[in-house]
Amino acid sequence: MNLKPVILIISNSSVSRREIKNIIKDLDANIVEADSSREGLEAVLSRKFDIIISDILMSGMRGDVLCKILNEDVLTRHIPYILLSSSASQPEMLQGFNSGASAYISRDEAPYVLLNIIKDLIKKTALLKQKSILIVDDSKSILNLISDNLQNSGFNTLTAGNGEEALQLLASNNVDIILSDIMMPILNGFSLCSKVKQTKKWASIPFIMMSSHSERGFIKKSIQYGADSFIVKPFNIHEVVERIERLLSDEYQKLVQKQIFLSKERSLLLNSISSLVSALEARDEYTKGHSEQVANISSEMLRLTGASKEEIETQHLGGRLHDIGKIGISDAVLLKKGKLTDYEFTQIKQHPVIGAKILKPLSSLTEISKMVLYHHERIDGKGYPEGLKGSRIPLSARIIAVADTFDALTSNRPYRKGLSNEIAFDIMEKNRGTQLCPDCLDLFFSMKLNDYSSHHFGKDLIVSELKL
Known about the structure:
alpha/beta, Hypothetical protein af1432, 3 domains, five-stranded parallel β-sheet
């Protein structure tokens, strides 16, 4: 369960604090107020905060001075600190950032950008603090020093006394950064770095080399073996924490950019695929709008389970695309008005496989691809294409099967007129546990009951229609 973020607002002015609270009210956060930097410092030392928002100009200690104090303490430097100022001048802005602030915002722009900046900082901080750091050194005192300070900064740590131990830990744990000494027994840092970078599943892990040798040749050799950064011993522990946070932040930015790229790519491809669906349905007046109906029904069914917004959107998209594979079926078969031959029906049965192949290149559509592939499977195992049975069929595909069946029964087709809801409900109920999933049928009838109730139908009519 996600806990509410805890935010500290520091300002001499109660009006200013109220304005900030109003700007971020949609964040649903626990707010703590302090009317001076001294009071703010006491609050930070007594409890944990996810974000600190502070005026830069205050009586007593300035906000940027407090920011610098907190940034120099390993126990508090990881807390994102936002400075607010009435001045947007470059010198004051630079002074604010030099104190260690995560963001510097003028009061004029705060109503428009503050909320989004806080959301981004919380998301980024949460992601970084979930990371695991593998520390490799044959000195127990150095291992303990680095591990304790990283843990105080919110990171998870693993420790190894040499490269061989490190490889064993890598094989059984998820590691996000490796911090390794060079001169160690059994397997030294150079050899460890080389093995890590040559192993596909570990190659992208940032590798920081530590050494008491500061010669340029040592640094070059570290880079040659694949190291991403180099730290000279003896070092300031703050420098180590800062280097790790910087590397992780770079990785975070790469991840964000990759997500943006994938999102745009996904959107463009989905638009193209949706156009194919529209073109497909335009071939046959009887199936026009069928996919949208299945999408609406199936997503409403899933909504009743308490699913997340993202899951419901994915279900809707799966319903929209469930018949995309029919684009690969010839018109002679797809639009035939009479009964299909066995050979023609075999061709029709290929559309889930064709659809899944169309979506396969999109890794972000894996769940939707399953809906497309399995929406004609049956609970009794007599469906196609794989003859899956019962719970082996993904729930999302079982939901689409129910929605698909209802819309097919109640829509006009070349060989018959659409059936009434009452007759369709009766047919679906008779196929409970054979063709259709009982749990999904219950969701469907509950949805219909809610739908009828919202339109103020009488109770007797509801019971009669649903055959419950």
